[in-house]
Design brief:
Layout: H1 2-23, E1 69-72, E2 75-79, E3 87-88, E4 96-100, H2 101-107, E5 122-123, E6 137-138, E7 141-142, E8 149-151, E9 154-155, E10 171-178, H3 182-185, E11 192-198, E12 206-214, E13 218-228, E14 236-246, E15 258-271, E16 274-287, E17 293-296, E18 300-305, E19 313-330, E20 333-356, E21 362-389, E22 392-414, E23 424-425, E24 445-462, E25 465-481, E26 489-504, E27 510-521, E28 536-548, E29 554-571, E30 579-599, E31 602-617, E32 619-621, E33 627-629, E34 641-650, E35 660-669, E36 672-673, E37 681-682, E38 685-695, E39 706-713, E40 721-724, E41 727-730, E42 735-743
Parallel strand pairs: 8-11
Antiparallel strand pairs: 1-2, 2-3, 4-10, 5-6, 6-7, 8-9, 10-11, 12-13, 12-42, 13-14, 14-15, 15-16, 16-19, 17-18, 19-20, 20-21, 21-22, 21-23, 22-24, 24-25, 25-26, 26-27, 27-28, 28-29, 29-30, 30-31, 31-34, 32-33, 34-35, 35-38, 36-37, 38-39, 39-42, 40-41
């Protein structure tokens, strides 16, 4: 660790010395980097652009939770996720990416995990095709289970089997902050956070209707409409967004990917200084409770699906209600309060194959039945101030936030009971032809967590320097009860986390930087001595350079990082029936990113990531069930190298092909290990996506707003599996979705 801290000091010194030399040749002022929200580029009907103009400069709040702004095509110049203030991306002392609404439209993103498919540092599909959860890894760390997913600046909490799902059509943008963010947000993933910005009301009338159809019997309708309320004198606006989908999956056997989603929103803006936005959502989803296929020895996926349509399905109902309030006492003193209540109710039934006999004619099975309820509340109070102390300009934000969740769960299973769960005939594959009994549910278990945090941050600008310093103190209280009659297991943790980052303006739009940040994650449970696990802690050193080419909408960034997370759980080497908080993992690597809006409807993204994530201290099991050391091994399922680029081209109005937009993407996923013992590798795979769209206004102005769009994913139908933790899963085959869109 001392070598890493010495490296940080060297990086900071290099940044400062390099900046001092450059300062002799430039007179760049930091106020030239201040970026205001700009109108989106494409005109209505011109491309898959941001129809509602919701670029963060309209009804959204100006700081934490308000989302990115300064958007043109695929580029955004300002984001709030890294600092909870409106900060240009090139000034944030960490790696930040923004996926804009136009990019989501062009790629016709269908799942929240797919929003980051072309972003550096992010990996999905570690468990193959799995529509049940929004599982995403950043720099090798899981952000779902580590509570690193946010909605409008507030944490989306999940636990056990219950995790709220995010519908991408209801989003204005997704911001990815890579690296620890505990100094502002509290407990979370050392890999970073994903902040999804909800679509919000705007004071311009607009509307959109979409009808989609695709492979595997996929049919979907979307609508998005809103504008000012009549008779409100421009002080009130509304927005209503909805999705209805009925779809199968490539698994067949009655597996579904169905969804109903509706999201009303309302804004009251009685003056230029005060804004109150109400945000809500109701969603029902139905997906398979299992998406896995039986694994044969040697990390081979068989053709036998583990589930059964007679006892299947994960039904999840969720809702959220909340608000975002902002009041400007003066232009230099702003108060914000963001609040949300989330509720989730889940019922899951699944069947597993335990074993297959020698002649592969019969499979023995068990089943499981689970019901979960999750309720959570999150509240964030922020006060932002702007002032100067001599030549130093300060942007200070401080706040107090609170988060609470309560999870109830019940589980039942029939294991080894061939009457309740009859064997599967693998010759006839009699899926769905036999009655499978529902097991009785066990006693209700309950888990609650309360978190209170106090934070303070200063962004100081002096000369060409940009110094960002924040700190936060958290108290986390957790209660667990296995049954209503069992003893409550109480666990309390406190932690101080923070970040310090320094950047320097070498030239207009060119900012090298270095930063150091820390993180923590509470861990529920007891060790072999009956002591509560201490929280997992982590720190990161990051250095890089960001460049916004002056006079263009072209941004590039490079970042190198080194993250160590300590005190993670592992099997206790002295007693394998227990765990101990003595594990450690290290992730280091670098990322390269470029995003460009070259013309209306013509955009380019490029992303490359190299990550080396290894166990520093970990215990694993070999094929015989013996505990062995995994020290120095790579974490399974995380590719060492990934590359992704996506290009769209809209033919100009002077072209004979005006109205036509074409595009395509390439996603290279490098090799990774199939298990934590590093005995077998996943092979590298390259996937291709495609876009063809046509705006009918090019034929006649009376057709303005009509658009046809065709999206293909994995268009060459690459059949591949992904293995992690020693288990292998299939991935989505080639898929095509056609859309008919009308916008006004």
């Amino acid at each position: 660790m001392s070598n890493r801290h010495s490296l940080l000091a060297l990086l900071l010194a290099t940044t400062c010395l390099g900046g001092t030399a450059a300062a002799q040749d430039t007179s760049v002022q930091l106020d030239q980097l201040s970026v205001e929200a700009t109108a989106p580029g494409p005109a209505l009907g011109g491309s898959g652009g941001n129809l509602s103009r919701g670029d963060g400069g309209t009804a959204a709040t100006s700081g934490g939770g308000g989302g990115p702004s300064g958007i043109t095509g695929y580029t955004a110049r300002v984001a709030t996720a890294a600092t909870k203030t409106n900060t240009p991306l090139i000034e944030a002392p960490q790696s930040v990416s923004v996926v804009t609404r136009e990019q989501l439209n062009d790629r016709n993103v269908q799942t929240f995990a797919d929003t980051v498919a072309y972003i550096p540092g992010a990996a999905t599909a570690r468990s193959g095709f799995d529509p049940r959860f929004d599982q995403i890894f950043i720099r090798g760390f899981d952000v779902l289970t580590n509570q690193g997913i946010y909605r409008d600046g507030l944490r989306v909490i999940g636990s056990g089997f219950a995790y709220p799902k995010t519908e991408p059509y209801g989003l204005e943008a997704v911001t990815i902050l890579r690296g620890p963010a505990s100094g502002l947000y509290g407990l979370g993933s050392p890999g970073g956070i994903l902040d999804a910005t909800s679509k919000r009301p705007v004071f311009v009338p607009f509307g959109e209707v979409q009808f989609q159809a695709g492979r595997f019997d996929r049919f979907q309708g979307n609508f998005d409409l809103g504008g000012p309320l009549e008779g409100s004198d421009g002080t009130m606006a509304y927005r209503l967004t909805g999705v209805r989908r009925e779809a199968g999956t490539f698994i067949g056997l009655g597996t579904n990917d169905d969804q109903f989603n509706i999201a009303p929103a309302f804004t009251w803006k009685p003056s230029a200084d005060t804004t109150l936005t109400f945000l809500s959502e109701f969603q029902i989803t139905n997906t398979p409770a299992t998406t896995f296929f039986y694994n044969d020895p040697g990390f081979r996926v068989s053709k036998y699906y583990m589930g059964d349509p007679r006892f299947a399905g994960l039904d999840q109902t969720q809702y959220r209600v909340g608000y975002a309030f902002e009041h400007k006492f003066t232009p230099d003193l702003i108060f914000r309060q963001n609040f949300r209540h989330y509720g989730l109710f889940l019922s899951a039934k699944y069947v597993d194959i335990n074993s297959i006999n020698a002649d592969r004619s019969v499979a023995t099975r068990d089943n499981g039945y689970q019901r979960n309820g999750l309720v959570q509340q999150t509240l964030d109070n922020q006060l932002e101030g702007h002032f100067a102390t001599g030549p130093v300009a300060h942007t200070v934000v401080g706040g107090v936030d609170y988060a609470r969740y309560s999870l109830t769960s019940r589980f039942g299973s029939y294991f080894g009971d061939s009457v309740a769960v009859p064997d599967l005939n693998l010759v006839t594959r009699n899926y769905g032809q036999q009655f499978i009994a529902t097991p009785p549910l066990g006693a209700t278990g309950r888990q609650t967590q309360d978190q209170v945090g106090v934070y303070l941050q200063d962004q100081a600008k002096f000369g060409n320097f940009i110094l960002t310093v924040n700190g936060r103190y958290d108290s986390v209280f957790q209660d667990s009860r296995a049954t209503p009659d069992s003893t409550v297991s109480r666990q309390d943790n406190t932690a101080f986390t923070g970040r310090v980052g320094l950047g320097y303006v070498l030239a207009p739009g060119l900012v090298p930087y270095a930063s150091y940040a820390t993180t923590f994650t509470p861990q529920v449970g007891l060790d072999r001595n009956g002591q509560a696990f201490k929280p997992a802690t982590g720190d990161q050193i990051e250095a890089g350079v960001k460049y916004l080419i002056p006079g263009t909408n072209i941004q590039t960034a490079f970042a190198g990082f080194d993250i160590v997370q300590s005190s993670i759980l592992r099997t206790d080497p002295t007693s394998i029936t227990f765990q101990s908080a003595s594990g450690a993992v290290r992730s280091k690597g670098f990322e390269v990113e470029a995003t460009a809006n070259l013309a209306p409807g013509t955009n380019l993204t490029i992303a490359y990531t190299h990550v080396d994530i290894r166990f520093l201290s970990q215990t694993a099991f070999d094929a015989s069930g013996n505990t062995v050391s995994a020290d120095g091994n790579r974490v399974s399922g995380i590719p060492s190298d990934t590359y992704a680029s996506f290009l769209t081209y809209a033919f100009p109005p002077s072209s004979a092909l005006r109205g036509l937009q074409i595009g395509g993407g390439i996603r290279y996923i490098g090799t990774s290990y199939a298990d934590d013992l590093n005995t077998v590798r996943n092979t590298a795979v390259t996937l291709y996506d495609a876009l063809v769209a046509y705006d009918f206004a090019a034929l006649d102005p009376k057709y303005k707003g009509f658009r046809a769009q065709l999206n293909g994913y994995n268009i060459f139908d690459r059949n591949y599996t992904t293995c992690s933790f020693g288990f292998c899963n299939r991935n989505q085959p080639a898929t095509v979705i056609g859309s008919l869109i009308y916008r006004w």
